[in-house]
Every structure is written in C-alpha cells, then in structure tokens.
TrEMBL record, chain A:
Keyword Membrane part of the UniProt annotation: yes
InterPro entries, per database record: ECF_trnsprt_substrate-spec (IPR024529)
Protein's name in the database: ECF transporter S component
Membrane-spanning intervals of the chain: 7-26, 32-48, 60-81, 87-118, 154-179, 199-220
UniProt-listed Gene3D superfamilies: 1.10.1760.20
Annotated Pfam families: ECF_trnsprt
The entry's keywords: Membrane, Transmembrane, Transmembrane helix
GO MF terms, alphabetically ordered: transmembrane transporter activity
Taxonomic source organism: Cohnella nanjingensis
TrEMBL record, chain B:
Lineage: Bacteria, Bacillati, Bacillota, Bacilli, Bacillales
Coiled-coil parts of chain: none
Compartmental location: Membrane
GO cellular component: plasma membrane
InterPro entries on file: ABC/ECF_trnsptr_transmembrane
Name recorded for this polypeptide: Energy-coupling factor transporter transmembrane protein EcfT
Organism encoding this protein: Cohnella nanjingensis
Entry membrane topology: Multi-pass membrane protein
Transmembrane regions: 12-38, 58-76, 97-120, 126-148, 227-247, 267-284
Keywords from the UniProt entry: Membrane, Transmembrane, Transmembrane helix
Pfam family, one: CbiQ
Length: 248, 297
C-alpha cells in the first residue's frame, strides 16, 4: 500500500502537466492533443471503479479471455469486407451477460490489445473509449432487463453502436476541422463520407447480434454460472429465470 | 529476444517517456520538413531494431491510410485563398492540399514510430509500468495479450477441422462465410473459456490476491537509463521551447507561406531528429562492445 501512493501522485502530476500543454496547444490552433488527453482522462472513473473492488482470479481471467476473443475475432473476417468485424458484437454480448463494468473492460482491453497486432497509434485511446462505452451501455441496458436480450432489440442496439462507433472515431478529425474552419458543412461532409463505413459496421452488428446474439449469450451465461464470477446480483437466483430456460 | 541489448535494454520508464514524447511532438509540430526529419529518424530506428521487417509488413496499410488522408482533406475543407481548380462547383484550394499533405506526413511519422513500440515496449515492460498504478487492469491486458497467439493457433486448428464439415470462411457466398466465421468463433469461445477456468484456479491455488503483488522481472534503473532520460528531457525541452516560439510550424491559413525553413525551423527539425534517434546510441554502443569482445575470433 505504501508504494501505491507515489505512483498515483506521479501519474496525477503528469496528467495535469499534459492537460496544460494540450490546452496551450488548443489555443494555438492544434486540437490533436486535447482530444487524446480528454479521452484518456475520461477513462479514469471506469478504471478506478474496476480497481477498487476485490477481484477473484476467475473474474480477471474471464475478462482477459473475452478481450482476447474479441481481438482474435477480427482474423477470420479480415478477408471479407473492411469494417465487417465482430469486435463490437463480442463486446456488447460481454456487457449484456457480465454487466456494465465488465463490458467496459472487455471493450477497452480488446482495443488496446488488438492494436498491438494491428498497429498502435493516436486512435488507440479513442477506440478504447468507443468500444468500452459500447460494452458499458450494453451492460446498463440489458444486464438486468430480459427485454433487451431478445434478438431484435439487441440487433437494433448493435446497429446504433455501429454508427456511434464511427461517429466517436470521427471526433478527432471533427475537432481538427472545427478549430480550422468553423464550418458545419465541412463537418457534415466528413460524417457523410464516413457513412458507408459506419453502415458496414452497423450491418456487421446487425448480422452477428441478430443471428448469433442469443446463442452467445446462452453460452456465456452458462459459464457465468459455472465460474460463479462477476455476479453480484440476486437477479438470477430470484424470480426471472425464464429466458435462461428458454435459451439454454 | 535480445531484451538485454541496446535500445531494448533501457528501463521501461525511459521507453514510455520516449514514445510519449515522440508522439506528442509528432502531433504538435506541423511542418512537412520537420516531420519528415522525424520520420527519417523513425525509419532508422526500425532498421536498427529489426532491419525494418515489421515496417515492411505495415507498409501497404500505412500508405493507403495516408493517401486517404491526403485526398479527403481538400475534398472536405475549402478554406484558403489560392484556388487551384474546381471539381464541379467545389473549389480545391492549395492551402487544404498542403494541410492534407502535412497531416499525412504527420500520420506517417507517428505510425512509423509506433511500429517500433511493439518491439521495444514488450508486454512485460507494459505490465511493469502499469502494475503499480492499475494492477488489475494491467493484469487483464497482459493476460489477453498472452492469450492471443494461443487463440490464433486454436482458430487455425478449428478452421482445419471444420472445413471437413463444410464450415469455411474461404468459399461460398458472403452470408455463408460470415456465418461460418461466427460459428468458428463460437467454438473457440467455448474451448477457451473451459481452459481459462483451469488457469484461474491454478492462479488461485498459487495464492493470487493474498498479498502485495510482486513482479518476476524487476528492471534496474541503471546509469545508462539516467543518461538517456536526461538527454531525452533536454531534447524535449528544447523542442517545447522552439514550438512555443512558433518554430516548426507551417502557417497554412489563410494563405500558404513559403515552405522554406527559417533558422529556427531547421534547429527544431534537427532536434526532433536527434530526439527520435537518441536511444539508437545505445544500440550502436552495445553493438560495438559486442564486436570488440569478439575481436580475437
């Protein structure tokens, strides 16, 4: 415990200095740093929440496996269509079954880890942010509400995230265009240019969540009970186990 | 491999400072010549570390991304005084072409630098750096990284076996391929989850979470790390000062200024190049020491 404090202190001071530099750069018309810094800072509450609680080894290994599966899942689809990846699908399903916190973790870690193989860059924090948020919202929405676990609502949710993901990733360029041009039409043109790619991503989510969503949820749910991990609600033992029977 | 040699033998803190600074200055400085100087340094770093093998593997996706950035900017942004031509009724300005090109070079520079990141900042160093700050998150990230090669191998096995049942991602229509891919992943998930349970229990049995975390590899902060860190800090503060005084920046809007470098710009370009190639000094030093020790043979 005594070695923990200085590490936090050092990180905090560095973060403050970097934020200052980014604000200074923004004032001089360079918005690239401020975007990255703000995204990194936005991860702190999630990370703190995850770190604060005592974790079993099983929970950590489970999250690592899910993140690794999400990263590897890009491989069989790499040759199909650019942008047609099941990463968002794996992240959303993880959030649905294991809750918001776990969903965020799987999303963020799979972005970080898959970029070790696909190329790190300034977009890594943005991807961590976008996928983390996809998992987090999936957990918030569907973890305790059986309605959202059904095929159609889940697929609709996936389509939304297909577009949202692209829009979040565009933010770097939007900030850059805005500090230069102050024109909404350029930003609209930018988003319009991205629409086909976002559409492919949304289509992938629709396909995977629509066709494989329930099967994957049933599989993960089985392991959740088997591991006894990441469950801190009495929801499953209590009344509503109907969909569990239905699916597995 | 070659963990104790040259650039890779430096302390993880030095490595992370190097990459953070290299990326930050790569995004702050905005002049094609300055960024090209940095890119040259990054290419040299790639050559010194693995004879640019990884860089060559990345060349095609990198170049295609850069070409996209170059083309998209003038099509979307129409600011600038000097109109080169009209596409329909859309003005293409010299300024946005120049801005797009500089942006593309910036991207090229950062990407090339980050190709070496994987070679230098291995998973062990990553864990060492973040284990004290975020022990659980770092462990999850590290385990996921370690799992990926194993999962890839398993996916290969599954692909081979399932092909005999007609489940393949290389033949048939798009729908069939996508469906097959997802089925392969489903099997992979079930297989890996089962196996992970054992890993977790064996961690538990060895006492995970019972006390303060320790690390097997401990990095010592040696004299060379101190020297490297001080040199990086000196180059970094010189760059920061130059940038704060407005050197290393190309004024694109409203009218493109001359591309010629002022004295300050040249200095910034030189210092940025030195910053990027600084750790290669250790590479050179260790290589010559190795040669000298083998002199008699």
């Amino acid at each position: 415990m005594k070695s923990r404090l200085p590490a936090w202190l050092v990180a905090g001071v560095l973060a403050a200095l970097y934020l200052g530099l980014a604000v200074f750069a923004l004032k001089r018309g360079n918005s690239l740093l401020i975007g990255v810094v703000l995204v990194l800072l936005s991860m702190i509450p999630f990370l703190l929440r995850f770190e604060r609680r005592e974790r079993q080894a099983r929970e950590l290994v489970l999250l690592a496996v899910l993140a690794a599966i999400a990263s590897v899942s890009r491989i069989p689809f790499a040759a199909l269509l650019p942008g047609f990846t099941p990463v968002t699908f794996v992240v959303i399903v993880s959030g649905v079954v294991f809750g918001a916190e776990a969903g965020w973790m799987v999303g963020a870690v799979s972005a970080l880890v898959s970029n070790l193989f696909l190329g790190q860059g300034p977009w890594t924090p943005w991807q961590m942010f976008a996928w983390g948020l996809a998992g987090y919202t999936a957990g918030l929405l569907a973890h305790r509400r059986p309605f959202w676990r059904r095929r159609m609502p889940l697929a609709a949710f996936g389509v939304c995230w297909g577009f949202l993901y692209g829009w979040i990733m565009n933010l770097t360029l939007v900030l850059d265009f805005w500090t230069r041009d102050h024109s909404w039409s350029a930003i609209a043109a930018l988003y319009a240019a991205g629409l086909p790619f976002d559409g492919v991503h949304a289509g992938a989510n629709l396909f995977f969540l629509g066709v494989f969503g329930p099967a994957w949820i049933a599989l993960l749910e089985r392991y959740r009970r088997k591991y006894g991990a990441l469950q801190r609600t009495l929801w499953e033992e209590g009344g509503d186990a109907s969909w569990v029977h239905r699916n597995g | 491999m070659r963990e104790g040699f040259g650039f890779r033998s430096l302390h993880p803190i030095v490595a992370i400072v190097y990459y953070a600074g290299g990326m930050t200055f790569g995004m702050l400085l905005f002049h094609p010549a300055v960024l090209l100087a940095g890119w040259l340094g990054a290419v040299l770093a790639n050559v010194a570390l693995d004879r640019a093998a990884s860089l060559r593997r990345w060349a095609v996706p990198m170049l295609s991304g850069i070409v996209i950035v170059m083309i998209v900017n003038p099509l979307i942004s129409h600011r600038g005084r000097t109109v080169l031509t009209y596409l329909g009724d859309m003005p293409i300005t010299l300024e946005s072409v120049a801005y797009g090109a500089t942006m593309a070079i910036m991207l090229l520079n950062v990407l090339t630098l980050f190709v070496t990141y994987r070679l230098v900042l291995t998973e062990q160093k990553f864990l060492y750096l973040f284990a004290r700050l975020l022990p659980k998150t770092a462990l999850v990230a590290m385990m996921a990284t370690g799992l990926i090669p194993r999962l890839r191998r398993r996916l290969g096995d599954l692909t081979l076996v399932q092909r005999t049942r007609g489940i393949t991602v290389t033949e048939g229509g798009l729908a069939h391929r996508a469906r097959s891919g997802a089925r392969l992943l489903h099997s992979l998930l079930a297989w890996s989850l089962e196996d992970a349970l054992q890993t977790a229990d064996s961690m538990q049995a060895r006492g995970y979470g019972t006390g303060e975390r320790s690390a097997y590899v401990s990095y010592r902060f040696r004299a060379r790390d101190g020297i490297a860190l001080a040199a990086l800090a000196a180059a970094g503060s010189a760059l920061l000062t130059g940038w704060a005084y407005g050197y290393g920046l190309l004024a694109v809007y409203p009218r493109l200024e001359t591309l010629a470098l002022s004295g300050g710009d040249r200095l910034v370009a030189a210092v940025y190049f030195i910053y990027i190639v600084l750790p290669l000094g250790w590479e050179w030093r260790d290589r010559s020491a190795w040669r000298a020790s083998n002199w008699s043979r």
